[in-house]
Write a structure and sequence with these properties.
about 160 residues, Aminopeptidase, 5 helices, about 35% strand, binds coenzyme A
């Protein structure tokens, strides 16, 4: 499914809220079950320095986003990211299109050489996606987060081009 990938706008907040409150996205990210629309409104109205959010649009509706945070000073060559595709649009190639855009922005325009992320160890679709783009598992954090009554481990993965 071909998406339009573009920079996020403040008025995308309702669609982005819908993405991050989907059960599948909430479970696999750091989200909480109850989050207000106001939170996303505020967050998308005031991006922090070094933050870039790209969204994927299908038929005028934002169905996925990827959020890049660039490092500073001696870590200006690094960035970390998180992403989510609405449950109803997963497995249709949208995550891949967002990754391609984010990697192009990072490496061809921002001169980012190290891109990293954390992913829960049981999130096989995400690990397969990142591995396909050359990310390698560098280590595993035990009890990284609490999810649905249990601790969950997470891998740190990185793609390094120096
Ligand atoms: C993980 C996620 C970002 C992938 O995006 P997507 O749009 O569903 O994935 P795509 O359809 O673009 O697939 C790209 C690749 O991901 C992997 N993948 C996607 N779904 C998969 C599945 N169900 N099982 C195994 N691999 C899968 C494959 O490597 C696939 O490549 P292929 O089509 O050549 O086999 C998306 O499913 C998602 O948002 N999940 C919930 C939130 C989340 O996990 N966020 C990331 C937290 S680190």
């Amino acid at each position: 499914m071909q998406a339009v990938v573009r920079a996020s706008r403040a008025d995308d907040y309702k669609d982005v809220y819908d993405v991050y409150t989907c059960p599948g996205v909430m479970r696999n990210t750091a989200g909480l079950p109850y989050v207000s629309l106001d939170y996303w409104h505020q967050r998308m109205s005031s991006a922090s320095p070094g933050e870039q959010m790209l969204v994927a649009e299908i038929d005028g509706r934002v169905v996925a986003s990827i959020n890049l945070h660039c490092g500073r000073n001696r870590m200006a060559h690094t960035a970390r990211f998180s992403m989510g595709v609405h449950d109803d649009f997963q497995g249709k190639g949208i995550g891949r299109q967002l990754m391609e855009a984010m990697l192009d922005l990072s490496e061809q325009w921002l001169n980012i050489r190290r891109i990293e992320l954390q992913v829960y160890t049981d999130n096989e679709p995400a690990i397969a996606l990142y591995t396909g783009f050359g990310f390698a598992i560098e280590g595993t954090h035990r009890a990284y987060a609490f999810r649905d009554g249990r601790y969950v481990d997470a891998h740190t993965m990185a793609r390094v081009r120096v």
